[in-house]
Structures are given as structure tokens and as C-alpha cells.
Amino acid sequence: MTKIRIYELAKQLGVPNKVILSELAALGVDGKTHSSSIETELARRITDILRKRSAHAAKAPKKEKGKAEPAVRAALPEEPKETVPPPAEEKAEARPEEPGAPVVKPA
Predict the structure, then answer these.
(1) What is the C-alpha to C-alpha distance for residues 64 and 70, in angstroms, rounded to an integer?
(2) Cβ(42)–Cβ(2) under 8 Å?
(3) Fewer CB in a 10 Å sphere around the end CB: N or C, the chain?
(4) 3-5 and 37-39: which strand pairing?
(5) What is the number of other CB atoms lying within 10 angstroms of the CB of residue 2?
């Protein structure tokens, strides 16, 4: 029989290597790394198991609470927030043009 590397199987199935390794451990195959090779029959068994799980997860009823929200939100870049302070109020005080000049305050 031919063999396939664990990382290649993970790439084909679109799952992390750790998922394949944990399934191998559950089947009693231990001591494997992502670069280890497994028989194609064993790879087929793992593929079937993972597809059944994903099909079961897809059929599970969804809880509805008001509006439906996506399970995963895409990270959108935030728009830069303006840090401009609000316009200052103009004061009615006269500013002296010369040092020592008297300050006129409104009554």
C-alpha cells in the first residue's frame, strides 16, 4: 500500500496537524509527528471520521436569539479615530498686548 504524510492529509482536509494526530491517538496509533507517514487505509478512516463530525456539526440545530450573528467575524481594519479636541470657547477677556497693561474683565 502507499503512504501519505500526516501534514499532507491535514492540508487536504483543511484541519490542523494536531487534529489528525489526536485522531490517530484515539485509534491507538501513537508516536506520530506531522511528518510521519500513515497507510492510505488509515488516512481514509480518519477522513471518514472527520467528515462525519463536520456533517454532524452542520446538521446541529442553531440557537436563535433575536438576530443571527456570524459564527466567525472577519477582522476588518478599524477606521482611524479623530483625536481633534472640540473647539474652545472664546473668552470675552481682552488680552493685553503689552506686558503690564491692565486686564479688562466684563462686568
Answers:
(1) 12
(2) no
(3) C
(4) antiparallel
(5) 8
Residue 9: how many other CB atoms lie within 10 Å = 24
**Helices 40-59, 17-26: crossing angle, 10 deg rounding:** 100
pLDDT, tens digit, for every residue of 79-101?
Answer: 666 676 666 665 555 555 666 66
Q: Are 29 and 56 a contacting pair, CB within 8 Å?
A: no
The owner of cell 456533517 is 55
What pTM did the predictor assign?
Answer: 0.51
**Other Cβ atoms within 10 Å of 5 Cβ, number:** 16
Record the cell numbers describing residue 105, joined without a space: 474683565
pLDDT for 96 equals 54
- The torsion of the CA quartet 29, 30, 33, 37, rounded to 10 degrees, works out to -30
Single-letter amino acid, residue 41: E
The 3-state DSSP class for residue 12 equals helix
